[in-house]
Amino acid sequence: MIKPIYNLNSIRPPITGVGRYTLELINGQLTQNQPVVAVYQGKLYQGQTLKRLTKSLLETTISTNGNLRKLIGSLPFSRDIYHHLKKAEFRRIRSRIEPKPLIEHDVNYANPNADVITLFDTSHINARSSHPRHRVTFLDRYFKQLLANQRSIITISEAVKQELITHCSIEPERIHVTPLAADANYHPRTESSCSQRLISYGINYHQYVLSLATVEPRKNLSRSIDAYLNLPPATRQQFPLVIAGAPGWKSSSLMTRINLLAEQGEITYLGYVSERDLPFLYAGSTVFLYPSLYEGFGLPLLEAMQSGSACVTSNSGALAEVSNGAALEVDPTNVIDITTAISTLLTNPESNAQHRQLAIDRANHFSWSHTVELTRAVYESI
């Protein structure tokens, strides 16, 4: 039986996109009694010990020296040195595992020569300004090595697959699409089940517009704010814009604006929100606003849809693929287009209810068990 091995050394709490994908993939295989091994912080995990590790990582909400890692990562060659040391440690531990062979699945840009590689997006190619220079340099080098081999590639959307074919000239038969899924904690909730969490943030059930994203240029928050501020004052007073998300790269000027608008009472800024509270924020929103400029998949959109929120998102790329007509899809560069969509869902109860149901129906097409099945099929094809 095929046994995949994962290098988890780059995963740190709180768990976000890449970490969530990796741990859900491992958990899904363990649930199906599939053999899986992983290396984390110099130790080998499998079976029940691996199950306990993934549970612990998913439940830990405290960041581990994030600012220090960012500082070190910006230093010349620091990422190369780090990855070289971690790869050597990984190879040493892997060499002791019996029986062989193992299939190495690289899920975090650690080894471009792994047997299977997951590529989450091509933003370092077609949205280069959305990344620091050192990250673009690192990803350029990784992709160059990847293109020189014939390893199997997994992407999380058809959109990313087409980008890899177009921009990188990768053969289509090398690329396999395995969509993401939302956790079962994301589902519609009643007012009574949400009220206590929402009151702690100063907001009321089905009386706010939610924007959830790291504060960085690619998330298009500046236009989202502009679009919201175009609404009539009475509408804004009834449905405040609630922004949840930690500051990211190139966020200083936008954070200044967000903090000023929050002080003036024009919007509500929550900062980072723990995964424990996110399901309640999604389910309690009147509208979920996510017109990002670029995503490899757009998991927050799927989480909101599965929570039964009426959504506004972008009309192109992976977000349009995930939505498939369930959300109101807009040109993310057109502020008036975004304003019109928000207004429709806030002022037309029938449209809002229709898009809530469309969102739930569409979200039912995604599951981690299906992702695991598609991924195991890739392993079997090697």
From TrEMBL:
Pfam families: Glycos_transf_1 (PF00534)
This protein's UniProt keywords: Glycosyltransferase, Transferase
GO BP: lipopolysaccharide biosynthetic process
Listed GO MF terms: glycosyltransferase activity
Domain Glycosyl transferase family residue range list: 208-356
Family matches, as InterPro entries: Glyco_trans_1
Lineage top rank: taxon: Bacteria
Protein name: Alpha-1,3-rhamnosyl/mannosyltransferase
Organism of derivation: Arenicella xantha
